[in-house]
Amino acid sequence: MTTTRIITSSITFAVATFLAGCSDPSDTVHKSSGSAPQSAGSAPAGAGKDFVVRAESKIGFVGSKVTGSHSGGFTNFSGTIQVAGGKIVGSPEIKIAMQSTWTDNDRLTGHLKSPDFFDAEKFPVSTFTITSIEATAEPAKITGNFNLHGVTKSVSFPAQVQVSANSVGVKADFAINRKDFNINFPGKPNDLIRDNVVIKLDLNATPGAARPQDQTVK
Fold it and tell me: Fewer Cβ within 10 Å of end Cβ, the chain: N or C?
């Protein structure tokens, strides 16, 4: 191989690697615009059966900047989903302990908990309260009030929802705009952080008592 071909191949590889690093994860998922909170409904007392979100459930996120992306999530969260007539009823709520934030980079994990981002000391718990589920088609459409960083916005997103006698499953990948929740840290001038963050939900709930760690999410 000639020197010219080696140089050309190296440049091509470098450009391809750079472009891959610049891809925006939110480009492949539904983008949800935050709007004014909606009224949450309620189910009559004793109207349904309680399903508790189990330990194998996952709540994750993917954030990105000009040069690449980072994955993360939360290890401590709780939720109870009420089911009646084969449907989710009322206003199920998921609570997330923000100090349980993790990422693929220890330094980033600490930064996300700081006032630049989640400010976990000031806002220790985030919540998502479902206000409606439209399940007439697949995927279903979930709408709910998301409280993050002291700000509450209504967000909607497509989700796979499965309800049976013994379990409830909810899976969804969608994006929110962090600036809707006053998380405005820009990043470095030559490596700006993107506004859209991908949220990844994989919730599994079954009948039974709450997990011990659920009691710490208050």
Answer: N
